[in-house]
Amino acid sequence: MSFVEYGEYIQEGDIAIVFLGRESMFPVKAQHGTQTQTKYGVIRHSSDLIGKRFGSKVNCSKGGWVYVLHPTPELWTQNLPHRTQILYSTDISMITMMLELKPGSVVCESGTGSGSLSHAIIRTIAPTGHLYTVEFHEQRAEKAAEEFREHKVAHLATVKNQDVCKEGFGVVGVADAVFLDIPSPWEAIGHAKAALKEEGGRMCSFSPCIEQVQRTCLAMDELGFKEISTLEVLLRVYDVRSVSLQLPDFGMETQVEGDPKETGTGQQATAICKSGVTPKDMAGHTGYLTFATKSLL
Amino acid sequence: MEKISVDHRTIKEGNYVVLKRENVFKAVQVQIKRKVIFEKQWLHLDSVIGQLYGTSFEVAAGGTLQAPKPNPEKNPKETKEAGMDNRNIVDDGRSQKLTRDDIETLKEQGLKGQEIVQQLIENSSTFRDKTEFAQEKYIKKKKKKYDNTITVLKPSTRILALMYHGREPGKICHLRYDTLAQMLTLGNVHAGSKIIVFDTCAGLVLGAVMERMGGYGSVIQMYPGGEPVRAATDNFGFPEHFYKTLHEFPLCKVNLLLDGTLSLDKDKKETVSAVDESNGAMSKAPQDSVQKMGEEVEGEKDSAQASPEVDTMEVTSELPEDKEKEERAARRENKAPVVYILQALEKKVKQEEKRKKHLEAAALLQGRNADGLVIAGRFHPTPLVLSLLKFVAPSRPFVIYCQHKEPLIECHTKLRERGGVIGLQLSETWLRHYQVLPNRTHPMLLMSGGGGYILSGITVAMDTATSSGPQKTEEPAPKRQKLQDTES
């Protein structure tokens, strides 16, 4: 397995996602002789993981079971160790498509942060593209590089530990796309323009606050970026549930319409329907995405 | 390699491009001496050949596109004169001193859009009294109307998804571009995988998947009816080798394939023998010559069509398993004149090609180890998913798009009953655009009302034993379990 290539069976050194439920999963690295504790009991790597097919059910010692899944950038996003705030798959999807990323694309990114977006970019541009990612925090840069090696994608990414606003991306005229997720993106627009190919390319900046967006848009406009467009994308998740509604009792004469289900207790009648129920709370804002094109002239 | 990359940047005859004016797109194929209509204007695209993608052109008289000037003139910033508010501006309908006829005359004189806008400003008595913001808005509005700049772009999922959503949302089942973006991510579509696609969105989803695969791996398009639809796919202008990774398989044969009654090798042999039988002279010819014969038939087609007996020769055995009919046809052919035989042969060649394609796709499907399933369209998703999921390996993502929520709710329920899937999620995205201008930043007045719904999940191994564990996988655990390494 690797993050850019599906494998069938779990091998020594592979990352697998232990799935206990939608809200409850975690990554493990399969190693002979190692054990992992879950609330359903212990998983012994040698017998329970290694050699098993991804997607198998693994019985744990206490009689419960879990599924072991092949890692994907999306599962990784839900499970990675946070070193910073991260981008989630909804924004990542939009960034990937609007930056026109595909196999072979050369992409510049800053900051690397926890590597949530980085993994998604690498997945999309493999096997012939490359990611140049810049992180000014030394430990975070080192950790990201280590993860890329562990996930067998190090050949597709270069991590640089420098300040993108001062020193840029370390490459000039090579990128098809640039992504910025830093506190003062307007200070890096010039470097973004320089990193993009001469014939042009796409760029995106992610900012939580509208004031940041305004300064960024001004800087983009001054440097000749075209098609400047700011948008926001929100995910709404629906919980599929059976909803039962009590039918009113109008007395003896009333004929109940439809297909009511009689419940056991007395003469109470209810109608059951399936519904997509929105959760009580939802993420109302992550950040504004500002896209722009570096054009020919 | 350098040469190739340079090559990709220039527009050549036969290339698929997208024309862009303001926020309106249109996909066309560049062909010499061919007129295309765009935004109520006839255009000739001859002069774009040899230019770089992303170049902007000015529309000149007669619809020819003028190549860009090396130095685009920057509109000089005049000394601004503007009013504070609109308390004294009265709408008497006479602020513009130019009449419609005057403007038409200006246009006929061949004035550039920019110059017409300048004339309009100079002849507007209220322009100077407008606020600075109102002046900007006025210029922007007029520019949109008179400025005739057209940019020629290289097609991409972004541009084509935007284009279809803007122009013909009905053709793509109202699949909004942000929803398409979610599908590609949730489906983990990437180079080297084997993806099954069912798409009744004119082939837009198929094209988007192919773009993300970059010609690595394989795509199997499942299609309803006689032929797969790829109108939008063609607009991507993929290189030839991308199509080598694209396979097709008809939905109407899925059950046969699943039952194992679609005995492929046997069918293949039968077809070949039928072709041989159809012409005594060719009965000993090697299989390869069938192709050649088919080409020769092309020339004789006209004379064959003139014959009144053509109808009787229709060998419409669409279904390969319909071998009786085939044999009967073959017997009849033995007695028919040479022209008919050749015509029937041509049909056979086509059928054989089609069958060959189906065989290849069937072989890919039979492994039941696809890396993903992407469904988008106007068919009821439940039966599609229930049967197509059988071709997908465990621990692989699948995504289903539907314009409406209710079918996906049913599908969700059925999938839970079936088992073999986890992490089911029914979702929708909202997309909001912003106007960002100094002191005038706000969400756009108009936003899209709905971009459809997605049901996604991950396949897992099906329960074979009756081990009904004590736990429900979908139930959230109270606490996240920490990984414990005994190794230190």
TrEMBL record, chain A:
Catalytic class of the enzyme: transferase
Domain named tRNA (adenine(58)-N(1))-methyltransferase catalytic subunit TRM61 C-terminal: residues: 64-294
EC number: 2.1.1.220
Key words, A-Z: Methyltransferase, Nucleus, S-adenosyl-L-methionine, Transferase, tRNA processing
Subcellular location: Nucleus
Main location group: nucleus
A Pfam cross-reference name: GCD14
SUPFAM superfamilies the record matches: S-adenosyl-L-methionine-dependent methyltransferases
Catalyzed chemical reaction(s): adenosine(58) in tRNA + S-adenosyl-L-methionine = N(1)-methyladenosine(58) in tRNA + S-adenosyl-L-homocysteine + H(+); an adenosine in mRNA + S-adenosyl-L-methionine = an N(1)-methyladenosine in mRNA + S-adenosyl-L-homocysteine + H(+)
Gene3D superfamilies: 3.10.330.20, Vaccinia Virus protein VP39
Transcription in keyword set: no
InterPro entries in alphabetical order: SAM-dependent_MTases_sf, TRM61_C, tRNA_MeTrfase_Gcd14
PANTHER family on file: TRNA (ADENINE(58)-N(1))-METHYLTRANSFERASE (PTHR12133), TRNA (ADENINE(58)-N(1))-METHYLTRANSFERASE CATALYTIC SUBUNIT TRMT61A (PTHR12133:SF2)
Function: Catalytic subunit of tRNA (adenine-N(1)-)-methyltransferase, which catalyzes the formation of N(1)-methyladenine at position 58 (m1A58) in initiator methionyl-tRNA.
Family listed: Belongs to the class I-like SAM-binding methyltransferase superfamily. TRM61 family.
Protein name: tRNA (adenine(58)-N(1))-methyltransferase catalytic subunit TRMT61A
UniProtKB/TrEMBL annotation, chain B:
One term of GO molecular function: methyltransferase activity
GO terms under biological process: tRNA methylation
Lineage: superkingdom: Eukaryota
Keyword annotations of the record: Methyltransferase, Nucleus, Transferase, tRNA processing
Region described as Disordered: 63-90, 273-331, 465-488
Alphabetized InterPro entries for the sequence: TRM6
GO cellular component terms attached to this protein's record: nucleus; tRNA (m1A) methyltransferase complex
UniProt feature, compositional bias: Basic and acidic residues: 71-90, 320-331, 472-488
Cellular localisation: Nucleus
Function: Substrate-binding subunit of tRNA (adenine-N1-)-methyltransferase, which catalyzes the formation of N1-methyladenine at position 58 (m1A58) in initiator methionyl-tRNA.
PANTHER family attached to this UniProt entry: TRANSLATION INITIATION FACTOR EIF3-RELATED (PTHR12945), TRNA (ADENINE(58)-N(1))-METHYLTRANSFERASE NON-CATALYTIC SUBUNIT TRM6 (PTHR12945:SF0)
Assembly and oligomerization: Heterotetramer.
Entry's family note: Belongs to the TRM6/GCD10 family.
Name of the protein this chain belongs to: tRNA (adenine(58)-N(1))-methyltransferase non-catalytic subunit TRM6
Lineage: Eukaryota, Metazoa, Chordata, Craniata, Vertebrata
